[in-house]
Specification:
Length: about 120
């Protein structure tokens, strides 16, 4: 295990690769923590329980607009494109911008580069 710089505490244990073992892959993560519970996904015009929980949490985008995340997902679920996708047997997709606005920070890039399964589903 590597040691953090003096005066800093490490939040996650790491090995010689610098990545916590259970964060290396989705399979390793699920082996360590278990898989996500199965929940009913959205259907045409019905966002489903996950979106309801996101709405209750008040989760918002981190950009300058601080836009409510649930409203974005509702817009996708209720869009004409989503209806066409569902009728063709496909699921609509929400794309998230992972742009880091803080020039001195690279935490998001490191996380997405090494363990995207912690961010993307």
């Amino acid at each position: 295990m590597s040691t953090p710089p003096a005066g800093k505490a490490r939040l996650l244990p790491v090995d010689s690769s610098g990545i916590a073992r259970h964060l290396r892959s989705r399979a390793a993560h699920e082996a360590h923590f278990g898989s996500l519970p199965l929940i009913q996904g959205p259907r045409i015009g019905q966002p489903g329980p996950l979106v309801h929980e996101i709405e209750k949490s008040g989760l918002r985008g981190r950009g300058g607009g601080w836009f409510p995340t649930a409203r974005k997902i509702h817009a996708v679920v209720e869009s004409a494109g989503a209806r066409r996708a569902w009728s063709a047997g496909r699921k609509p997709v929400v794309i998230a911008n992972a742009m880091e606005g803080e020039p001195a920070s690279s935490k998001d890039a490191v996380l997405l580069g090494h363990s995207p399964h912690l961010v993307l589903d």
